[in-house]
Design brief:
Helix content: 40-55%
Number of strands: 12
Low-confidence stretches: none
CATH architecture of the largest domain: Alpha-Beta Complex
Strand content: 5-15%
CATH class of the largest domain: Alpha Beta
Shape: globular
Distance between the termini: 42 Å
Length: 342
């Protein structure tokens, strides 16, 4: 009983620490960065992400990753520069890593901000982010945007993604104490000092990785590079997926790589199932703590609050996703945006 309360109390403490102590962008400044957007069949998303950046004076470059829709043409019409591949995807590279690597080679500003095409910068995003970039001593800046839910039960499933990050990783503690390393970047939004980007060539170092943001976070930790993890839910939004089916397929493409090894992934599955249902042994108090941990992480990302009560099912969905992803990885059938990865 004490062990269970300690486990669920730990999740609550980490989530609360992140809510209280993660840095927020507080001041505005003249824009000091350029935005890089890897895009494959993102014709619907680009009219949402590009105009607010252009209107703020941000130079925007889009890598049109062999799209079959009008991604490149739309990006040009909206005022972005467009890079198109001159050859097929090189062997050993994932599409996104190659796109980001090519984008990095065209960078000119002091700060380079890589953004997924499904993100939505709000009106003062560029100025508020610039205020932080101009004052930080970090070499890399990342963060958690607001998560817009999809349709139906999609939020009840996808809620495990921010929960597993924000209830187990003490980003707030690292911020408050200046000790340790976050070992994390969020691939939806990562800002790099150009000097660090050119020195490390991070996308080439992880060129074949599907879960590239986690691998890059570990690379930065190994080299003791300082990373700021911000709470940016008031200046940046994202809708990762629209339907439950799309969310499950999307998460299966990389969940096998979360723990880094199949044996570690299976252990993680068992741990998640224990967390999801261990409260049955501990009683309603343990369930309340588990729900509270989810409610706190939802507060950080401004996610659908009703999903907190379903957290046991949400975590179970995470365990199932990892198992399916492991099977797909073993068979070499992990597919996303028309490409299959082994």
């Amino acid at each position: 009983m004490i062990v269970l309360f300690g486990l669920y109390g730990f999740l609550v403490a980490v989530a609360a620490g992140n809510l209280l102590f993660m840095r927020r962008t507080k001041i505005s400044a003249q824009v000091c960065f350029e935005a890089m957007i890897p895009a494959r069949n993102e014709a619907e998303s680009l009219p949402i992400i590009i105009p607010p950046l252009i209107e703020s004076g941000v130079r925007v470059t889009v890598f049109d990753d062999d799209s079959s829709d009008e991604t490149g043409d739309i990006a040009l019409r909206l005022g972005a520069e467009v890079i198109r591949p001159t050859q097929p995807l090189p062997a050993g590279w994932t599409g996104k890593n190659n796109a980001c690597h090519q984008l990095a080679r065209s960078a000119t500003a002091e700060w380079i901000v890589f953004m997924d095409a499904d993100t939505h910068p709000l009106a003062d995003f560029a100025e508020r982010l610039s205020g932080h970039l101009r004052t930080t001593d970090a070499e890399v800046v990342t963060g958690f945007p607001r998560m817009h839910p999809g349709e139906g039960f999609e939020p009840a499933y996808l809620g495990w993604v921010p929960w597993i990050l924000l209830a187990t990783n003490p980003f707030g503690l690292v911020t408050a104490t200046g000790k340790g390393h976050n070992r994390f970047t969020n691939g939806q939004f990562v800002a790099w000092r150009r000097s660090t980007l050119e020195e490390l060539q991070p996308f080439e170092q992880v060129k074949g990785e599907i879960l590239e943001d986690v691998k890059i976070g570990r690379l930065l930790a190994k080299q003791n590079r300082k990373v700021d993890v911000l709470l940016i839910s008031d200046i940046l939004e994202v809708q990762m997926y629209k339907t439950l089916r799309e969310a499950f397929q999307g998460m299966c493409k990389n969940s096998a790589d979360i723990a880094g090894h199949p044996a570690a992934s299976l252990f993680l599955v068992l741990l998640l199932l224990f967390i999801a249902w261990g409260w049955v042994l501990g009683g309603v108090g343990c369930y309340a703590l588990l729900v509270l941990s989810k409610a706190l992480t939802d507060r950080i990302t401004k996610f659908a609050p009703w999903t907190a009560l379903l957290i046991p099912l949400t975590i179970t969905g995470a365990a199932v996703t990892i198992i399916v992803s492991l099977i797909q990885k073993r068979k070499g059938t992990r597919t996303w945006k028309g490409r299959t990865y082994s």
